[in-house]
Amino acid sequence: MPVKKYNQIYSRIKERIEDEEYGCQTMLPSENTLTEEFGCSRNTVRRALRQLAEEGYVQSMHGKGVQVIYQPYEQADFMFSGIESLKEAAERNQKEYETKVVCFAQLTVDEKIARRTSFAPGTQIYYVQRVRYMGGQALIMDHNYFRTDVVRDLTPGIAEQSVYEYMENVLHEDIVTTKRRMTVERVTQIDEKYLDLKDFNCLAVVSSFTYNGDGVMFEYTQSRHRPDCFVFYDHAQRIRK
Amino acid sequence: MPVKKYNQIYSRIKERIEDEEYGCQTMLPSENTLTEEFGCSRNTVRRALRQLAEEGYVQSMHGKGVQVIYQPYEQADFMFSGIESLKEAAERNQKEYETKVVCFAQLTVDEKIARRTSFAPGTQIYYVQRVRYMGGQALIMDHNYFRTDVVRDLTPGIAEQSVYEYMENVLHEDIVTTKRRMTVERVTQIDEKYLDLKDFNCLAVVSSFTYNGDGVMFEYTQSRHRPDCFVFYDHAQRIRK
DNA sequence: TCCGTCAACTTGTTTATACAACTTTTCTCA
DNA sequence: TGAGAAAAGTTGTATAAACAAGTTGACGGA
Fold it and tell me: Is 1.10.10.10 the CATH classification of the domain at B5-68?
């Protein structure tokens, strides 16, 4: 089974919604109808629908049907969704982008770093500071902490390209789960030194903890964005009692 | 079936993880083992595990097992998760809180409001401005737009309590899906007038579009938070190819 | 010793079925 | 006619089973 059936069905329905073949506010065909159309079991259809619901395309209503609630977003400069690297995001938005490594060090986690990163004291890590440019402006400041035993033989050159590509293609490490925390923080002297800040005195800060296929947290990253180039989208379904 | 089995199993396993009976970095018992223990089918166990994975408690690894990746958060002043009202959040964090309505109007959506809220021009709405206090400080400024045909007979008194409780308990309207957009924006004159801003010149802004059980978008809200009282948590699983 | 194969065990996908719970429509009977 | 019951259709929960696909460890042979 090279291609997953529920993924095909998900994509087909998604296209129809985006093309407004299934218009906003209308009902999808019933699960049984879709089951017949796609020649699969109801479970497989339901799995596809579940994914569409999680991504805010539809919402299902017990006893009534599944309703389309999708309306296209006004496109943003920048859009997160799932775990996506800046490079992927920039390519999708067709902007020229560049990364400059301004600090590259190998060090041992002390108490202070441990509190911030939740790495155990004594862990060997690479510490990388990177400035991200899009459209010629310095917009994002990244502070990365990578475990040296997972992200092996990291170099400034790799950090200037994509660390994730290096991990997946060269090291064959899987990136599985990320926990993120979004906050808004005051600018620091380092921010002022490297970023084109205009007169903002705050930044959008995304702190992320990333785990590999072995369940090891191998990365802590703090990504500091100039406010006007930061957007984060999210969907949520209220749990009914 | 009054209580849902997968929910029970989910809760039981979650407790064990939080009590560190299943320690961080260890493997859960296999799905077959859990199936036997809970006397249910494998699918039901898998549904519980899926929920735990979505909430960042575990991650499953094909062929290996399901690993615990939970570590307790340093508790934040404020924590979103799913669709939760400020009142629920405040109660959970045991803070005194208060809401003051500073503007309450009924009006018709014009072109300008339509662009911001994505309500159709001509729609009748309540427009409410509310200031939220926690621990004696004015921290949050809410701009709410409610459709009058869904949130019927809204009053300033209700808005000062909880609009969601009014909707669920009195109007029996279900709140199902919310789409949110998080950004960071400059403070406005209105923010300065009502909020205790310190010297921040930016705010964390959450814009949300909320749908009821009939799939009608009945609310647009812009919630403007002072940076130091805003945190947003999120989990994401990378889709493997 | 080292390497490959195989068996055992894990999670992932798919099908099929049954019944529960909720909504809408239809039908029946007063 | 009208109200209520029944039927039909919808999504939600749960079970069972089979096979695919990835990882681990043990066994055996060169």
Answer: yes
